[in-house]
Amino acid sequence: MTPDDEHYIGYTITDVARLMRTVFERRVRSVGLTRSQWLVIARVHRHPGLSQSEVADLLEIEKASAGRLIDRMEAKGWLQRVADGSDRRVNRLHLTAAADRLHAAVWPLAEATIDEALSDLSPDERRRLTRLMTRVKSKLQALAERDPAGGVTQADLDDGELSEEDREAQAL
Q1: Which of these, 26, 65, 89, 111, could form a disulfide with 61 (CB 3.0-4.6 Å)?
Q2: Per-residue pLDDT tens for 56-95?
């Protein structure tokens, strides 16, 4: 049985996340900021001193890609690298004053995007949605920590013996 796109929660969650990104990206395009750059600014604002590797993990990108992103942001005057006192190989990232100002200007746009997206929900529905999504996030974090890296193998696909559950999981 193929899930109905309009009612399948996996598709809905993916579509909501994609549309949130799209709306936000359009709103900040005029200041020359990409979503990836915003994520770095927002994360380093909340957690000053993140390493390049930690940023790569947070953005789910390769370390080399994170390095190039950080290089561009450093060239724009938004980030500075500070050598880690205990490990010469690690640089800690800190926002510059320009990035702090950018964060202060863009954060209200990020909040407004969320507020507008949720405007049809009552305050109680918003709290409930937040609680439920937090529970799902916690469960997924636990699964990510204990599940092996693999799941469906090429052999499963070649055999054509993929279970209905595996096919639905792939659709996510």
Answers
A1: 65
A2: 998 989 999 999 999 999 999 999 999 988 888 899 999 9
pLDDT-based confidence at residue 166 (cuts at 50, 70, 90): low
CB atoms inside a 10 Å sphere around CB 63: 12
Tell me if 22 sits within 8 A of 35, measured CB to CB. Answer: no
- The domain ranges of the chain are 1-120, 122-172
Enumerate helices (H) and strands (E) in the chain, giving the number of each: 8, 3
Closest CA to 76 of 31, 114, 45, 117: 31
Q: Are 37 and 102 in contact (CB under 8 A)?
A: no
Residue 3 has pLDDT above 70, yes or no: no
**Is the separation of the CB atoms in 91 and 52 below 8 Å?**
yes
CATH class of the 1-120 domain in this structure:
mainly alpha
Q: How far apart are CA 111 and CA 114, in angstroms?
A: 5
Token pair of 25, please? 């990206």
Residues 6+ apart with CB under 8 A from 82: 49, 91, 92, 93, 94
pLDDT of residue 89: 87
